Amino acid sequence: MTSALVTDFYELTMMQGYFLKKHNPRVVFDVFYRNNPFNGGYTVFTGIEEVVDALEDFRFSEEDIAYLRSLGSFDESFLDYLEDYRFQGDLYAFAEGTPAFPGEPLVRVESSLMDCQLVEAFILNTLNFQTLIATKANRMVQATGGKGAIMEFGLRRAQGENGAHAASRAAFIGGTRVTSNTYAGKKYGIPVSGTMAHSWIMSFDSEEEAFRDFASLYPDNAVLLIDTYDTLGSGIEAAIRIGLEQKAKGKRIGVRIDSGDLNYLPRVIRDRLDRAGLEDATICVSNDLTEEIIQTLVADGVPIDSWGIGTHLVTGGSQSSLNGVYKLAAKEEDGVFVPTLKVSNSFEKTTNPGIKQVYRFYDEKDNALADLIALDDETVAEGVNHTFFHPFSMGDFFVMRGDAYKYARPLLGKMMEGGRRTSPKRTLPEIQDFAAQSLSHLHKSYRRQINPHIYKVSLSRRLRDLKMDLILKVRGAE
Asked: pLDDT per residue over 79-108, tens digit each?
């Protein structure tokens, strides 16, 4: 069971207000974000499968009800209602692992107002964090240019137990190969890996003794940490001696560097290993790596086989959060959904009204060209011209000519109906593969680290006209 207390307190006070005032129409909420993190060109949408799993089992336990009662803020009739509560809404979303862009409704929740209000915080917390970490991981994978695997280390630096597990899951979807977190490996089936800490080496009388004992215990995963005392002295010398012993047994070693000049040291170490006859020995580096550092080392041709990423991955590095929001888009009146919008003095913060769908346009080589946000009842026919309007300004439109694209694909698919999953559940490796394949359809100019090309996301003419009409109506009533 997922405790429904994983919500903001004001969601519960509003929910009680709706309950006591018998104000509970069916509504539609959208989840979207306004800016790409890390000054990048995309995000990797992540976390929705866990959202669906949790919402199927979203409940208030006896202990939860007792706690709410102790606060003295809730009416007994409302607490009685919560005792039998379960989420009964419909949910539409992008498939997990889909590249996403600002302004797009990534999730659409259709249910009663009370239902939608309660799940807001949980949905945002899950999607914002996991999408951020998956995007960070993918940026690091992209930075390697295919030269070396990213290994996720250091989940102890993530925020709490659940944050660590979620970070490991998201990082794997983003493209990491293994995790250092054992429970995350058990829970999600992610391959686990680990080498040794400096304390292992310091507990022995010599590095050679420490390395030999470790290699005897783990002959198929003998990655030796060589920078405890003297990386280019006793560290690499002991590693070479153990490496030759292991080679005689048909095994190979790896060495790991966790400090020092990562542009210089791997070059010298690679040369020392090769001259000793250990050409198949691998080199792993760690030590507060970022995608910028990785990209620089790869561009400089530094011989590195794998990268251990910790702090800057599982905490989001320079980006503390994804600015995802959850906004009301439509409400039912007399059996009909009426579009709503939030108006702001900043046009880019004025929301897009109504029940919507997102279409991605592709060329004949399956390259993604642009996305169109349209009303859900619009027909986006193939082979015809479509007018695109900029989502955050009054104009700036262009025409997607019918001969410029091959097909358009809707991105919002139904995942829940009446609070129950309707879409097949995918394994984590399947989601990882889907993410990698989906990202491969984006031109590299959108995926580059510095000054990425801006992917076009626009509104349909009908949606743009509806938005402008509602803005004028609201402002005319002021």
From this structure: 999 999 999 999 999 999 999 999 999 999
| CA 178 – CA 195 distance, rounded (Å) | 12
* pLDDT higher than threshold 80 for residue 344: no
| Adjacent-strand bridge partners of 311 | none
Nearest alpha-carbon partner for 37 in 105, 107, 137, 120: 137
- The DSSP code sequence of 179-233 is ES-HHHHHHH---B-----HHHHHTSS-HHHHHHHHHHH-TTS-EEE--SS-III
Give CA–CA dist 294/286, Å, rounded: 10
Pairing mode, if any, of strands 223-225 and 90-93? Answer: unpaired
List 281's β-bridge partners, or say none.
Answer: none
User: Cα 241 from chain centroid?
Assistant: 43
pTM over 0.85: yes
Give the list of residues 6+ apart from residue 247 with CB closer than 8 angstroms, or none.
277, 278
- Give start and end residues of each alpha helix (H) in 291-363: 291-299, 311-314
- pLDDT tens, 441-474? 999 999 999 999 999 999 999 999 999 999 988 8
CA atoms within 13 A on the CB side of 110: 17
Which residues, 6 or more positions from 186, have their beta carbon under 8 angstroms from its beta carbon? none
d(CA 231, CA 265): 8
Q: What span, in angstroms and rounded, lies between the C-alpha atoms of 211 and 283?
A: 15
Instruction: Give the integer Cα–Cα distance in Å for 338 and 344.
Output: 20
Decide: helix, strand or coil at residue 292: helix
Residues in Cβ contact with 369 at an 8 Å cutoff, skipping those fewer than 6 apart: 361, 362, 363, 400, 404, 405, 456
Asked if 344 and 337 touch (Cβ cutoff 8 Å), the reply is no
Rounded CA separation 28/18 (Å): 16
For the segment 166-195, the average pLDDT, to the nearest whole number, is 90
